[in-house]
Each structure stands twice: as C-alpha cells, then as structure tokens.
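Support reply, case 0932

Customer input (verbatim):
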Amino acid sequence: MLTKRIIPCLDIKNGRTVKGVNFVDLRDAGDPVELAAIYAQTGADELVFLDISATEERRKTLANLVKNVARQVDIPFTVGGGISSVADVAILLHNGADKVSVNSSAVKHPDLICELSKNFGNQCITVAIDAKFINNEWVVHLVGGKVPTEYKLFDWAKEAQERGAGEILFTSMDNDGTKDGFANQALAKLSETLHIPIIASGGAGTMEHFKDAFVLGKADAALAASVFHFKEIAIPELKDYLYRHGIDMRR
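Our regenerated output:
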C-alpha cells in the first residue's frame, strides 16, 4: 500500500502566498520561498505551488519564482497557473518543477491533457478541478472558481483520467477555507470511480479532518494551506496523529 501524502499548498498572487475563504477575501500568508523551505524541512511529502491569478490575468506562471522555490526543496513540487501549452510545461519542468497542474486550460481544450501526457508522461500531469455543489450536482468552475461550466465533477474527472491525467486535485469550493472538513462523500466517489490518485483539497481545520479525508474520503493525499501557513497544525504532529490512527504515513 502506498503511504498517504500531506501536501501544503502555496497559493501565489503578486509573488506572495495568500489564503482566502471560498476563493475570496485573500490575506497575506508569507513569502513562498521561505514557506517552501520550512515545509520541506518539517516533513511535507510534496508541495503545490499555484499562481492563482495567472489564468484570470492571462499571464504565465512566475517561472523565476518557481526556480527559487525549487532550489529550496528536495521533495516533489507541483506548479500550476496559466499553463496552456507543451512549451509552458517544458519551461516549468526546466526551472525545477516535478509536476504541473492544469485546470481552466484543460477544460477549455481537453486535448491539452493528451498532449502533455504524451510529451512528459502522465506522472507529471495533475488535473486540478474546482467544483461547487449546486442543485445536487458538483459543477466544475474555472478562473479561480469564478466561472461555472457545463461540466460535472465525476464526468470530467473520468475524462481527464482517460486523456492521461496522472492524478486529480479536487477542491471543494464550498469547503475551501471554512475549516469544517473535506468533502468526503465526493472524494469517496471519485476514489471509487477512478484508478489514479486523488488529492483532497478544501476544508482542513483539524487533524481529524485529515484522518477523515483518508478514511471516509479514501483520498490518497490531503492538501491544505492556512492551517499550515498560520501554524495552526504542525506537519510532524499531524503525521504522528495519523500514524497513531492506523494511517500509513511517511515519517
């Protein structure tokens, strides 16, 4: 059995780490390079670095910042935001990223997933899905959660897998920043529907929430931001807690 992963997420806007609630009301959470180094030293299994305004503002991910972050870490590192071509990915991987995350561009041009997987291997390709529960359905949203689409979560996740995604990063917009727990029912259904790893995102507030994401949600990894950035939960203590509750963790 593969060990479960704990993944701090660095949402970047204007070169700073930020965190909000339900994708709005952003506040500063620190320097991303410093945070990345701390997380790598204190037991994070991976990092995710998302330039959350890159798609909205139609600019490319900050490649120099990616390079600086990558110099500080010795753990796998995923980069996303504004990625729309094979050339974009080549630049990011060259600058030190281990994987890339695509979201809006993949929904608009699903063949992009196929192209990226063919060129770099599906182990490098994460498809991020932001979804909101509307009228008893999980509706996929784009552009930092601002634009609803006709896509439904489970259909789109399955198509992404078929096109070559190596893992799915699912963020519940309803749970994001609330610290009320992850969307475990949706996570469990994703896990049952797909054979690639599922990363849970949105809602972490307590150590028990992480446990529930793994046990109830059947997630392969759990991602969080504010509870780590603002030192509400320490990663070593979290991993000890999960291990004591029978969850296989890298320690």
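We compared this against your earlier run and they match. Two observations from our side: The chain has one domain: 5-244. The chain is about 35% helix and 30% strand. Please reopen the case if you see a mismatch on your end.
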